[in-house]
Amino acid sequence: MYFQLEHRFAKGFTFLANYTISKLLQDTGGIDNGQPQGQGEQAQPQAGLGIGDVYGLAPSDITHKFQINYSVDLPFGRGKRLLHDAPAFLDKIVGGWQLAGTTMFRSGQPISVYTPSGAVGGLGSQWYNIGQGRNNRPVIIPGQALGMTTDGHSALLGSADFQPYINPKAFRLTQGWEIGNVPSAFPNWRGPGFSQWDLAMMKSVNLSESKRIQLRFEAQNLLNHMNAGQPDSGVSSLTFGQIQTQSGLPRRVMVAAKFYF
């Protein structure tokens, strides 16, 4: 479902907000949108369990997304509330500025625990030796908490109060011809959420009736907020359960000029 609210106020102020709630399902049979089912494919072994065994959330599913867009003419310069009687040279500097921005919040993506196809030292499964199940599903160990007890920043490698986002003791590799019971994605277990503020200041300078220059000062991730990435979910990885990446980029500031003719 998608909801949108838009309103244009006086004095050049516009506001647009939208919210999306969604659910994306898949039945390809592969961990993290992996290989399809079929003869000669490198999909997970099914052993007659049926497609329903791997039907569930897609790893790219995002349940909630809320975004706000806004722009306003700054009240400086001739004809504005402040400095309305400014001399011409000052009006050229302070007048005609516009502030615009985008703010976005979204929920995290599903957690997918798997056995990496490039794992070294024996995957603990004979399926790999006959050319099947390159991305085997591991086995959940009963009695162990899967994780879900910390936030993204606490799971960052090197954090002072470090706790793994995924409990490494809660999973093991398959043995022999065993088929793992880990779902393609856990339905109620998500990675860290995401938020970001982008802001821009723009000013147009008229050169003639048909020509103008637009000055732009833009900042992506204005607050320089670090959004933690997804945890390492490869069971055989040395950093299994830890977060080593960030989602999005650090603050980036840009200055630009556009010539319209």
Note the main attributes of this structure.
single chain, 261 residues, 30% strand, 7-stranded antiparallel beta sheet, mainly beta, 1 helix
What does this entry show, briefly?
The chain is mainly β and 261 residues long.
What does the model show?
This protein is mainly beta and 261 residues long. The protein has one domain. Helices cover 3% and strands 30% of the residues. It has one helix and 13 strands. It has one helix at 88-94; strands at residues 2-8, 14-21, 25-26, 56-57, 64-73, 97-106, 139-140, 171-172, 194-206, 212-220, 227-228, 246-247, 252-260. The protein has a seven-stranded antiparallel beta sheet with strand order 1-2-5-6-9-10-13, with no helix packed on it. Strand 1 (2-8) and strand 2 (14-21) form a beta hairpin. It is elongated.
Architecture blueprint of SSEs:
Elements: E1 2-8, E2 14-21, E3 25-26, E4 56-57, E5 64-73, H1 88-94, E6 97-106, E7 139-140, E8 171-172, E9 194-206, E10 212-220, E11 227-228, E12 246-247, E13 252-260
Antiparallel strand pairs: 1-2, 2-5, 3-4, 5-6, 6-9, 7-8, 9-10, 10-13, 11-12
**Strands of the largest sheet, in order across it?**
1-2-5-6-9-10-13
The largest sheet is:
7 strands, antiparallel
The overall pLDDT average reads 81
User: What is the subunit arrangement here?
Assistant: single chain
Helix content: under 10%
**C-alpha termini separation:** 42 Å
Give the overall shape. Answer: elongated
Order of helices and strands: EEEEEHEEEEEEEE
Give the beta-strand count: 13
* Helix/sheet category: mainly beta
Radius of gyration: 26 Å
Number of structural domains: 1
- Runs in which pLDDT lies below 50 for 5 or more consecutive residues are 29-33
Strand content: 25-35%
Number of helices: 1
